[in-house]
Amino acid sequence: MISPANDFRSVSDFVETALQADDDDAARNAVAALHWRSAIETLERAIACTRSVDPALRECGANILAQLGVPERTFPDQCFLALLPLLSDDVEQVVAAAVYALHYIDSARGAAHIILVAGHEDEDIRHAVAFGLGGVDTPAAYITLLTLMQDRDADVRNWATFGIGRQCDVDTAQIRKALASALSDDDDDVRREGVIGLALRRDVRAVPYLTRMLHDDPDDILAQYSAARLLGCDEGQEVAPSNLLAALQRL
Question: I need a labelling partner for 229 at 20 to 30 A (CA). Which of 62, 82, 98, 131 fits?
Answer without folding.
Answer: 131
